[in-house]
């Protein structure tokens, strides 16, 4: 083996293309002087003054560069508090060598801003360019900027493992570099990724500060609903046991005073009818004075057609807000900060909900064992009436408590609300009609009646076959109001209870049947009277007879007929004299006899006539006797007297 044979056993040198590329160092961009820290900016300014002062001293005293520099360092040291002690180990930097280093930057010219930028230390600000493979940082940011909130170390480990599985040749940055990158991230981005959009809005995003002092009390109402973090007992009719239910409140507060002028607490889901009843209660509490503006969110019930947004029928807009003269303003979706009612809901949760033994907490993690106890002991919870009474007492105290801040300025909500200026009021009758919700156009059916939600509502003022706009009553489900499509009131329609099919021993049902039969006869009689009035009593004649008759001719009945079929069960024929002359009446011909029994009946009739005819002196007696003889002999069927 040769002396150099051991080289053959050495591993082959890797191709340079297989070697990991060395990350390029980032070259920081020049930083503006105004962005420099104060000490770095002052130090650059002293360097500029030092160079210029040396140039002035050199020219005025005819000194060399070194001599002028030494003169300035000795006689003007007080003017350079930073440079005289910023050298190595506190030495002075007012030296000839530094002059030679700084003077080219000054002689290069330009504005003072540009010169100071060149004289400043190599200072960089902001986020430095990431070192390492771009793919690693994408994986790391994806692991860290996540709602799962992985710690930095775990996110780094997962990103490093993923990167090694994708490309083993890539050099993974260090954990310290990862921590540096996290520290340089925008806090708004971190909160958005790890806590959610709502947290980002509340902690980082700018907000609008609204000035409510210029809004009079009673002009703007803010509406919203909230489910309490406590429960009441409700009897289940199917099981006969109590169950725990979280009640919900639909509230309207005054935007200026925060006074809750109307609210509705229910254990049922809040819908458009609940909001309509709450608005009607607001108008009732204010003496018939609806607000000018309503500030609602974009929920489907708050923007229901016919309530706050118009229902278009026949080209005309109909809504409760239009009848009350209220303008709707919708807040931005999912933007609770825009509605001051959310502040009152927060106070309600902290001051009212937490008083109850089964407080559930505003988040699942706050639920206690006491709440679990009441899941199976709902009978120990208050009923809805008692709960509402307790809430009314708390709300009265809340309204009378003075509040600080620019809106209240030491006054209570009740003080500001009570001192409000009156607004135009509506009468009770107008309010009763205005809070009925337009439901749509219906065709009037027999009765006359209109159908809504599977029920029939009857109103005598309606006309069968016409169109009617139907409005529901939020306080009375058995009543609707009927209007013409353009909004003119027709009348009130109500439901009717069904009657027992067989009312044999039910006096009330029999009376109801009798009343309805009388109603039917009255309607038919009124229709006939109207027909008689409109036609002058000539509706029974045919158009041809009306055309041919003389003026003033009177109808003459000539016959009638009855039948179980047809449009009417009885018919009376009327005619007008001098129009269609009837043919002369012919004597009736003897009916043709088809059976033996018919012949016998005819013979009996002839015999009866013969026997009862008075005697006369004609020769017809023999003929009559022969007819009687034939009848007797032909009907003799045997010798038995019984058969005969």
Question: Would you write up a description of this structure?
Answer:
This is Integrase catalytic domain-containing protein. It holds the Pfam family Mu-transpos_C. Residues 212-421 form the Integrase catalytic domain. With 644 residues, the chain is α+β, with helices and mostly antiparallel strands. Among the domains are: 33-119, no CATH class; 134-203, Homeodomain-like (Arc Repressor Mutant, subunit A), CATH 1.10.10; 220-418, Nucleotidyltransferase, domain 5; 436-494, SH3 type barrels, CATH 2.30.30.130. The chain is built from 20 helices and 17 strands. It has helices spanning 38-61, 65-75, 96-107, 112-119, 134-144, 152-166, 175-184, 187-195, 197-203, 272-285, 320-324, 341-351, 369-375, 384-399, 413-418, 428-434, 507-535, 543-548, 596-612, 620-634, and strands spanning 220-227, 232-235, 242-245, 248-254, 260-266, 293-296, 311-313, 316-318, 327-330, 437-443, 449-452, 455-458, 467-472, 479-483, 489-494, 556-562, 570-575. Strands 5-4-1-6-9 form a five-stranded mixed sheet. A hairpin with a 5-residue loop joins strand 4 (248-254) and strand 5 (260-266). Helix 1 crosses helix 2. It starts with 37 loop residues before the first helix and ends in a 10-residue tail after the last helix. Mean pLDDT is 81; it is low at 16-20, 22-29, 618-623 and 636-644.
């Amino acid at each position: 083996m040769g002396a150099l044979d051991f080289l053959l056993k050495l591993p082959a040198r890797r191709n340079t293309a297989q070697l990991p590329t060395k990350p390029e160092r980032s070259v920081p961009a020049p930083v503006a002087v105004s962005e420099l820290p104060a000490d770095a900016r002052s130090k650059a300014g002293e360097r500029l003054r030092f160079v210029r002062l040396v140039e002035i001293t050199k020219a005025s005293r005819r000194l060399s560069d070194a001599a002028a520099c030494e003169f300035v360092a000795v006689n003007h040291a007080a003017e350079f508090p930073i440079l005289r002690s910023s050298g190595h180990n506190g030495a002075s930097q007012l030296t000839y060598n530094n002059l030679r280093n700084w003077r080219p930057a000054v002689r290069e010219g330009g504005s003072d801003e540009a010169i100071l930028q060149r004289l400043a230390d190599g200072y960089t600000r902001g986020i430095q360019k990431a070192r390492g493979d771009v793919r690693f940082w994408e994986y790391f940011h994806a692991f860290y900027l996540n709602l799962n909130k992985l710690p930095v170390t775990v996110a780094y480990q997962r990103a490093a493992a993923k990167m090694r599985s994708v490309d083993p040749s890539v050099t993974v940055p260090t954990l310290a570099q990862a921590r540096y990158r996290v520290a340089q991230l925008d806090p708004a981005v971190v909160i958005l990724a790890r806590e959610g959009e709502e947290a980002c809005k509340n902690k980082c995003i700018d907000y609008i500060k609204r000035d409510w002092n210029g809004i009079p009390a009673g002009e703007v109402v803010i509406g919203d609903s909230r489910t309490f973090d406590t429960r009441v007992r409700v009897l289940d009719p199917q099981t006969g046991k109590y169950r725990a239910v979280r009640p919900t409140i639909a509230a309207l507060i005054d935007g200026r005073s925060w006074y809750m002028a109307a609210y509705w607490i229910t254990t049922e889901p809040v819908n458009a009818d609940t909001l309509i009843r709450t608005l009607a209660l607001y108008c009732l509490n204010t003496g018939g004075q609806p607000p000018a503006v309503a500030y609602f969110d974009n929920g489907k019930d708050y923007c229901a057609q016919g309530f706050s947004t118009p229902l278009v029928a026949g080209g005309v807009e109909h809504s409760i807000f239009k009848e009350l003269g209220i303008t709707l303003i919708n807040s931005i979706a999912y933007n609770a900060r825009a509605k001051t009612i959310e502040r009152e809901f927060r106070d309600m949760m902290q001051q009212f909900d937490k008083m109850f033994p089964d407080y559930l907490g505003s988040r699942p993690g706050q639920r206690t064992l006491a709440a679990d106890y009441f899941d199976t002991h709902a009978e120990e919870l208050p009923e809805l009436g008692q709960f509402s009474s307790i809430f009314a007492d708390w709300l009265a105290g809340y309204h009378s408590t003075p509040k600080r801040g620019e809106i209240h300025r030491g006054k209570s909500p009740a003080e500001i609300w009570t001192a409000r200026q009156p607004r135009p009021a509506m009468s009770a009758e107008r309010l009763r009609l205005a809070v009925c919700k337009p439901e749509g156009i219906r065709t009037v059916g027999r009765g006359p009646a209109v159908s809504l939600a599977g029920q029939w509502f009857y109103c005598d003022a309606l006309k069968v076959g016409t169109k009617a706009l139907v409005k529901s009553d939020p306080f009375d489900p058995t009543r609707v109001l009927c209007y013409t499509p353009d909004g003119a009131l027709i009348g009130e329609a109500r439901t009717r209870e069904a009657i027992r099919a067989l009312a044999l021993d039910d006096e009330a049902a029999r009376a109801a049947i009798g009343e309805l039969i009388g109603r039917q006869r009255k309607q038919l009689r009124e229709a006939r009277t109207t027909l008689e009035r409109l036609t002058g009593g000539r509706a029974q004649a045919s158009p041809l007879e009306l055309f041919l008759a003389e003026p003033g001719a009177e109808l003459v009945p000539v016959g009638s007929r009855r039948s179980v079929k047809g449009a009417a069960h009885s018919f009376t024929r009327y005619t007008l004299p001098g129009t269609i002359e009837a043919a002369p009446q012919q004597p009736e011909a003897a009916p043709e006899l088809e059976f033996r029994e018919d012949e016998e009946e005819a013979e009996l009739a002839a015999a009866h006539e013969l026997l009862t005819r008075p005697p006369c002196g004609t020769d017809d007696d023999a003929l009559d006797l022969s007819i009687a003889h034939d009848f007797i002999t032909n009907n003799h069927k045997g010798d038995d007297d019984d058969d005969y």
